[in-house]
Amino acid sequence: QVQLVESGGGLVQPGGSLRLSCAASGRFFSINAMGWYRQAAGKERELVATITSGGRTNYADSVKGRFTISTDNTKRTVSLQMNDLKPEDTAVYFCNVFINRNYWGKGTLVTVSS
Q: Does pLDDT of 98 surpass 90?
């Protein structure tokens, strides 16, 4: 079983920054890929950014140049540095890891508002 614990959400003004983190624990050998998705009110869940075990990253066009995804040395924690936040970034952000199947965190709310 895999457990994901997310942290770092909150309220921030437009132009501000937040950093989300997600720690994976449980009985597994390695993680194939990790990422962040988000779901705004009334909308479908969408990809924000992903990173593979080899370090290859992928970003949604809407966040390129503003968000950076990274992992730590253990490859069991994934972080999302979000800069220059916009009101349209407001959403619940979900951590995702792929270990033979998808696992999801419970989500953390990011609100960008003045």
A: yes
